[in-house]
Amino acid sequence: MTPGNTSNEQLPSKGTVRILQLYPRDMNIYGDWGNVLVLKQRLAWHGYDAMLLEHNAGDTFPDEVDLLIGGGGQDSGQVVIQQDLQSNAAHLRALAEDGTPMLAICGLYQLFGRFFKTHDGTLIPGIGILDIETHGGDERLIGNVVARSEEFGDVHGYENHSGQTFLGPGVRPLATVTKGEGNNSTDNHEGARHLNIVASYLHGSLLPKNPAVADFLIEQAVTRKYGSFEPGEVDDSLAELARQHAGTRPR
Ligand code: GLN
Question: What positions does the entry give for substrate binding (predicted)?
Answer without folding.
Answer: 140
